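Hello again,

I reread your note about wanting to compare the complex against the isolated chains. To keep things tidy I'm splitting this into two emails, and this first one only covers the full assembly. Below are the input lines as submitted, including protein chains and any nucleic acid or small-molecule components. They are followed by the predicted structure of everything together. The single-chain runs will come separately.
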Amino acid sequence: MSQHRIEADYLVETPDDPERTVATIAGEQSNGTFVRVPGETPKLLERAAARVVKFEVIDRFVGRRALPTAHPTPDQEHLTRAKFTLSWPLATLGPSLPNLMATVAGNLFELRQVSGLRLLDIRLPEPFAAAYSGPRFGAAGTRHLAGVQGRPLIGTIIKPSVGFSAQDTAALVAKLCAAGIDFIKDDELQADGPNCPFNDRVAAVMREVNACADRTGKKTMYAFNLTGDVEEMKRRHEVLLRHGATCLMASINSVGLAGMIELAKFSQLPIHAHRNGWGYLSRHPLLGWSFTAWSKIWRLAGADHMHVNGLANKFSEPDDSVIESARSCFEPMFASKTCTVMPVFSSGQGVTQMPGTYAAVNTTDLIVTAGGGILAHPGGPEAGVRALREAWDAALQGVPQADYARTHPALSMAMRAAV
Amino acid sequence: MSQHRIEADYLVETPDDPERTVATIAGEQSNGTFVRVPGETPKLLERAAARVVKFEVIDRFVGRRALPTAHPTPDQEHLTRAKFTLSWPLATLGPSLPNLMATVAGNLFELRQVSGLRLLDIRLPEPFAAAYSGPRFGAAGTRHLAGVQGRPLIGTIIKPSVGFSAQDTAALVAKLCAAGIDFIKDDELQADGPNCPFNDRVAAVMREVNACADRTGKKTMYAFNLTGDVEEMKRRHEVLLRHGATCLMASINSVGLAGMIELAKFSQLPIHAHRNGWGYLSRHPLLGWSFTAWSKIWRLAGADHMHVNGLANKFSEPDDSVIESARSCFEPMFASKTCTVMPVFSSGQGVTQMPGTYAAVNTTDLIVTAGGGILAHPGGPEAGVRALREAWDAALQGVPQADYARTHPALSMAMRAAV
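Full-complex prediction:
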């Protein structure tokens, strides 16, 4: 594609003529008016208008609209679904991520001609790569800080999510570090509440993490949730550096894009991007964002780790969607800069999902977080961590898990307990 | 409600037992695990868990799920829709808007028990009012700067959205100022692209605005779109102050919450909050956010004007939804601080929608932007502005528009031209 154009792929459903609908979308997202106004010359349109560069009908059927509109909606009508690609000249907005969002994901979802619209993918020209850092740690930097090579980082989340004091949290962390865990994260509901202040939690947790590292040589990576306004995140980042922390976490839908760009500018630690709220952006298959398109914005903005849910998760997302999301984390964004990030698998994860996870992504550059899978292992947390490592050993060696479990009791117990 | 608890109202659809589903949502958004973990005592749960404080089944029916899940989904099944209210102790998160978002609108939308979930409203305890500025201008401050009393601000949007240079924009602005317009805004697609750089546009536009003000005593308010990262917004804000601008605009879904909070901290001008992207947050009636809930977050963060679409708009939103949004802008958020904002009516607006708009909101504390309604008026832009003012005069005097038009030719022409 051109070095000077932005492209976005969409899926649309419409009761109207699909080509006319797509032309309307292109108009709304460039010249932006349906009335001819003074000064809008054909030359101006040629230079500034969005172009439809691909258009393909994928389904025509009689049925019910995916999304309601203000129009009267019959129960059954002729509908068309189509995929199309819009292209914008970079010169109208420049390499700006916030303005890109308004362009590729602005008013278009509200158009009445549209009874379904989903942004599937985006492709950005090279000037965007120069304008933003992208992930500054990614898999290599994260592995270096966590001291883990050749397998995924095995991690967990502090649960219960809320109610623990800083001391309660640190006591659980001490146990998990002693169990040899690679990675621990705050829950997204825990940031800096009066019951568990951020600074107290960092001090108490890092005392345990550092003590264990001094004793064993292994420093567990802890992702502290610093979600807040820009000044709060800056202050909290300073606290993290002072205590030798090696990772931070932010709820990116809460912080937002300008906040994330600012965070990436000052952060000296990997950014663990939590996607909570993702459901309202994506849950309807004919509305909102695909993970592939959405995550590219945050990858370029500076995320190092991105949540992708997990196989056989406790949420509503099917496995094929999880796999597509995880794979998209490894797709290079630019010739000059891949912006690849580590996918984070979570939600009801245990040894049973590990062979399928490896088969799906064919790499170990990922983070797996298991809650019950570690803390509820009948042999205790150390056996829980060991079981997950053994599950990966088996997968990497191409040995069926059940066979490997015969000589590996921690894995065997985990399989029997289904944790 | 308690001074120390946060409340959120939801609409849920589920194929499961609705009370159990609601309990699951409360669990996910507080203790956050389905496996009993060490340290999770009944006392901790009592202190930290979210409580279901209201629950009401509103419909039981046989039909098809609003949202798909990973489960096999029959075409027809028993479904329940219910409204419920969750309550959280403030002490688990503190008065933090970004962390509020993760709590009231986090992972819950992804739960598999849920085949529809929409956040309807939120109520925040007083400490939130102390933690954020809220709108610092609102209607009174905006009226003072625009010099408009007793009627809505009549405005327009620069169209075509993109393609105009700074000089083209300024030439159109000169014409609009001469026509006596109160308010002009950039389009959300125009921020700081190479074809129309922000600084050039501000200089060229404000030269015309200031010249017209010197000549006529009326200074048109122009909302410059400074959407960008935090540092860009700070620099652009300085440029605005230097040229005597009286308003700024930000695409709040592009900037995000931490960026908006930062903007509100340094801004010395009213913040015109553009909601583009709202469709992906709200278009499905059983997913995402109601405007009432969503706008409260941005009102408290510092928005002064909020887009609400318009009656008989060109988008998909029905009038009752537009009216509900507009009215919510005037509902006080706290006893100590109302955080009321000016609703902005736009999209295909002209004289015909004005009586209904006034009847719906019963106030003039609003902004109406008309594109074709002003620029395509057969008598020219001055007649377009006059026609809209006359439409409001008629509405405020309780005179039917058709009667008033008999003695007001600009209004009469607008009605005949249907602009």
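For quick reference: The radius of gyration of chain B is 24 Å.

B.
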